[in-house]
């Protein structure tokens, strides 16, 4: 199977081809088609199997396929992750995948001054990659509005819950629109 057979649009195929990606991994094969059909997903796969591409490609394709005059202002996709290292890594992947689209994305995380992150948000963002603490902080400052979110990704969901982010997630969920696509990705449970 190829990405073209998964009905991926040409700008994304071009970006994938430049990365040397022609055949989807098993998690990508299983997740992309249902995600393109706007179904909620629970994806479980080992690290390094392509989960980031599995959840980001359908989101980028949906956003790119909307006509410019139909686009709603504001953040449309939120990717929540437990660490800044993972947030940065996902944002770098988005750089590659959105290369031939007009999709704008940003990453926010704590441990650094927020000025540059806020400036990028104010310039306009379609996809936001965030860690919970900085996200909640910027929501409380009324810098981030989640009312336009159409796609919500919880990456490394198992780790988020194991490391005590459950309270942050419980605070965030009521702020998200009810009508959204939800994509949870996790590692398999270790065998005992």
TrEMBL record:
A motif (Q motif) lies at residues 1-29. The keyword Magnesium does not apply. SMART domains: DEXDc (SM00487). SUPFAM superfamilies: P-loop containing nucleoside triphosphate hydrolases. GO terms for cellular component: cytosol. Residues 1-29 form the DEAD-box RNA helicase Q domain. Keywords: ATP-binding, Helicase, Hydrolase, Nucleotide-binding. Pfam families: DEAD. Gene3D superfamilies: P-loop containing nucleotide triphosphate hydrolases. InterPro entries: DEAD/DEAH_box_helicase_dom, DEAD/DEAH_RhlB, DEAD_box_RNA_helicase, Helicase_ATP-bd, P-loop_NTPase, RNA-helicase_DEAD-box_CS, RNA_helicase_DEAD_Q_motif. Residues 32-192 form the Helicase ATP-binding domain. GO terms for molecular function: ATP binding; hydrolase activity; nucleic acid binding; RNA helicase activity. The keyword Transcription does not apply. This is ATP-dependent RNA helicase. It comes from Bacteroides reticulotermitis JCM 10512. The lineage of its organism: Bacteria, Pseudomonadati, Bacteroidota, Bacteroidia, Bacteroidales.
